[in-house]
Amino acid sequence: MTPTTDLIVLFRIAERLTLTLVVLIVAAIVMIGFWRTVQRVDLTEGGKLGVAGSFAFSTPVFVLLTIVGYAYVSLSAPITVTPAAAGQAMQLAGGSAAGFIGVMPVPPGADTAPDGDPDHARAVADRKIRSLNCLAQGREMTARQEDDLALVKLDLMAPVWAADWGAQDAFRAWATGIDPADPNPLARATFNAVHPVC
After folding, report:
1. How many helices (DSSP H) and strands (DSSP E) are in the chain?
2. 50, 88, 131, 132: which could form a disulfide with 84 (CB 3.0–4.6 Å)?
């Protein structure tokens, strides 16, 4: 995980711990108030509790329901981090018990390889291919759109072609449907890769 990702996750953990502490402090204050109020309620035989007595005796139930409800919402919402386009801020996913999704903006110049570093360039191309595959996943596409997608991914792979990916021409022929022969498995894995969160 990157430093930005670590910061997002730590922030979300600290946020939940803080909210948990606040709920427990409020619950403790309410319970102390309950104990002191009960001591003042007259429970002589045949006497009526009244509004104050009824409220005092129902307080523990409300506190318990509050803590259980908070624990359900907080603990059933996973913390996940997903990459996104530049400028996107933190988002809260929809749903009744939705998890916090920290969206990391891509900083300007992140696609620029320092001093022509081939590993960095390959990582950037791999990230773009994974994003394209995520966008295409589960969508109905025409044959032309599928061909265009394959050509775009091939254009991303061409400048960073690895020696262990085999012959580039043979892989291009497979990707464009010209040659049905099985391509190099490493190149095919890169070509078909998606982000884990897709």
Report:
1. 6, 3
2. 88
